[in-house]
Amino acid sequence: EMRMSSERRDRTVLVVDDSELLGKVLREVIDGISGFRVIAVAASGAEALALVHRLDPDIVTMDIEMPGIDGLAALGYIMSEAARPVVMVSGATTRGSVDLTLRALELGALDFVRKPQDNTVEAWALVSTRLEGALRAAAEMNVGGVPMLARPRVRTPVSVDGARVHPRLDSVVVIASSTGGPRALAEVIPALGAAEHTAVFIVQHMPPGFTTGLARRLDHLSALAVSEAAEGDRVEAGRAYIAPGGRHMRVVGNASDAVIALSDGPTVHGVRPAADPMFESVAQVFGARAVGVVLTGMGRDGTAGLRAIRTAGGASVVQDRATSVVYGMPQQALLEAGADRESPLDQIGPTVREFIAARRQARP
Question: What are the strands, taking DSSP E only, across 91-156?
């Protein structure tokens, strides 16, 4: 059959997995995705590093838990010595393996795909769909965009005597992120400081189970108290709420007494949680007190939401092309909704703080 690759060659993929069977299955799955072909399967981290240098694959899929040089060590080496898109393939059934997966995203892995929990045709079809999405994102990845996060600074917990006082909430920040998002959030959220009079909402495209780990990691890095949102949570200043994987998040009520509502409604832009419903609810409840932020990611989620926030008088920031791992969501938002500021990743936190300060001054 005629392939379209005459003018655009297939992307080459190195598969790394210590299970011979899984390596073979992954090869078959990837070879069945148009535009990609597997050039080799490595059974260990050490073999993977040798093959990266010898074969120079466009993309690597990397098993996380392997004996010897494990997936994290191999990833760290690749991203510092021979950077290219790496998609982690994760068993991720325990808290420990979820944390490893999130650490991999902080170290520069583009995305992750979960191994199927059972060996059914349906389970593998799902893996194949996820893998295709990750490989297509890899083909658009801006490899030089974001240096890997070294050892992140860890906050010193501050003890407060007596009961917790809830300061007045006078502004909110709502953030959309997808591919490359966990790494970007690990920079942006700590840069917001304690945000004493601000609540933060984060919608990161992620499957169930991983948002709990993401909340735990961001809480560890930030002066803000970060948690996975629960139905009916009161919106409080100094807190950040992450939409749980697989559920849409909105705010309901009014600005002085808002609560979080979760739903299992249909996907938006093919994802759940999606940022647009969250942004639109924030625009409705908080209006000009809101700052909307669109970070790296594939697709167009966040565009309609950012437009709603701007229409309601809120401020807006999008991540710039140079530092976006995938410049899809920020580009669409900028083109269709516009933004007050287009910022590189390390300036997003300071820019948001500046907008928050301006909103506080404007209101006696």
Answer: 111-114
The gap from C-alpha 60 to its chain's centroid, in whole angstroms, comes to: 19
**∠ at Cα 178 (174, 184), nearest 5°?**
75
Distance CA 18, CA 151 (A): 27
Cβ-based neighbour number of residue 216 at 10 Å: 17
Q: What share of the chain is helix, strand, coil (3-state, %, to 5)?
A: 40, 20, 40
Q: How far is CA 284 from CA 77, 240, 254, 260, in A?
A: 46, 19, 9, 14
Which amino acid type is present at position 154?
Answer: V
Is residue 156 over pLDDT 70?
no
Q: Catalytic pick from 171, 177, 178, 281?
A: 178
Q: Is 178 marked active-site?
A: yes
Structure tokens at 185: 């959030």
Active-site pick, 128, 301, 316, 320: 301
Query: Which position among 63, 111, 177, 205 bears the catalytic label?
Result: 205
pLDDT per residue over 191-233, tens digit each?
Answer: 999 999 999 999 999 988 899 999 999 999 999 999 999 999 9
Which position has the token pair 């249909």?
266
Q: pTM of the entire structure?
A: 0.89
Annotated active-site residue 324? The verdict is no
**Element holding 352 (H helix, E strand):** helix 345-362
Q: Kindly compute the dihedral angle of the four CA atoms of residues 74, 79, 83, 84, in this order, to the nearest 10 degrees.
A: 70
Amino acid at 22: L
Q: What H or E segment, with its residue span, contains residue 247?
A: none
| E strands present in the chain | 11-16, 36-42, 59-63, 86-90, 111-114, 171-177, 198-204, 225-228, 239-242, 248-254, 257-263, 290-294, 315-319, 341-343
> What torsion, rounded to 10 degrees, do the Cα atoms 119, 122, 128, 131 define?
-80
At residue 32, the 3 state secondary structure works out as coil
Is 269 an active-site residue?
no
Residue (of 88, 92, 103, 101) closest to 134 by Cα position: 88
pLDDT digit string, tens, across residues 320-362: 999 999 999 999 999 999 999 999 999 999 999 999 998 887 7
User: Looking at the DSSP assignment, which residues form a beta bridge with residue 202?
Assistant: 175, 242
Percent of the chain whose predicted confidence (pLDDT) is above 70? 91
